[in-house]
Amino acid sequence: MTFTRRILLCALASAAAAVSIPALAAKPLTMGFSQVGAESEWRTANTASIKDAAKKDGVNLKFADAQQKQENQVKAIRSFIAQKVDVIAFSPVVESGWETVLREAKAAKIPVILTDRAVNVTDKSLYVTFIGSDFVLEGRHAGEWLVAQAAKNPGKKYNIVELQGTVGSAPAIDRKAGFADAIKGNPALTVVRSQTGDFTRAKGKEVMEAFLKAQGKNIDVLYAHNDDMAIGAIQAIEEAGLKPGKDILIVSIDGVKGAFEAMMAGKLNVTVECNPLLGPQLMQAARDVVAGKPIPKRITTVEGIFPAELAAKEFPNRRY
Ligand code: GZL
């Protein structure tokens, strides 16, 4: 072999080695993420947090919006399995119906991380961890705020109407349970109507219109499982000639900017925070899982409660 050819081969070999080692070492982690949809301000902030964190972390994110349909999430998860992603993460639109597709992910040896909402499965090995809020506690905080309000007006009875979240979803089931637990046995507080508004402003307005038609002036409180439904209901209350936040007290959950604006306008009385900014925690958990590091089965987000009197002071700090 000529001298020149030998030099060329050595140069090529070292160049290949130079390219392959860092490339192998820094092979970006690929995550398949199935998102519920784009139904609320909270969801928009949650999606932004996940996409921003993936970008910052160098994670190759394959993102699928399910438009609030479970069948679309199952399809997306199957597609991620076929693409052999390193990790699958998703926010399950409802609690049940996941065993089959999660068993397929397990058979393909792809770890699954739950974020935001939980699933109801007997085999807990079907997911590695669940990162999200304690929705029962959020509902309890909403109920406790109302109990404290009622205590200031002894003898007054409060008829409560409830706008539930998406039927079958963990936040709807748990926020209803937590609220009911907090007001249980209190003679001043009665839930007179309860119906799903599917977490959207449009549906929240529509159902509140129906409540107002059925109950007339006999509504004292609205408990909404998220701010978007509360904001839709505020429109319905005003169109009925009533003052939201005064004629009808409004208790809500999420803590989105729209809720703070409504509180500063005197139209909403309290919002219980539900933190959507789960992106950084999710990327860290994904890296740990892929690296084989042990991680807790449950990672709970820390959250606050914001009554209207704190809204103006807190508003500048809001990140979603
Ligand atoms: C809660 C999340 C809920 C929000 C709604 O973690 O799943 O879904 O409360 C959103 O705003 O639509």
Give your account of this protein's structure.
With 320 residues, the chain is an alpha/beta fold. It folds into two domains: 28-133 and 276-302, Response regulator (Rossmann fold); 135-274, Rossmann fold (3-Layer(aba) Sandwich). It is built from eleven helices and twelve strands. It has helices spanning 3-25, 41-57, 70-82, 99-107, 135-151, 170-183, 201-215, 227-239, 257-264, 279-290, 308-314, and strands spanning 30-35, 60-65, 87-90, 112-115, 129-132, 158-164, 189-196, 221-224, 249-254, 270-273, 298-300, 305-307. The strands form two sheets. A six-stranded parallel sheet has the order 2-1-3-4-5-11, with helices on both faces. A six-stranded mixed sheet has the order 7-6-8-9-10-12, with helices on both faces. Helix 8 links the parallel strand 8 and strand 9 (249-254). Helix 2 packs across helix 10 (279-290) and helix 3 (70-82) runs parallel beside helix 4 (99-107). Residues 16-24 have low confidence and may be disordered. Beta-D-galactofuranose (GZL) binds at residues 39-40, 42-43, 116-117, 133, 171, 199, 226, 228, 253-254, 274.
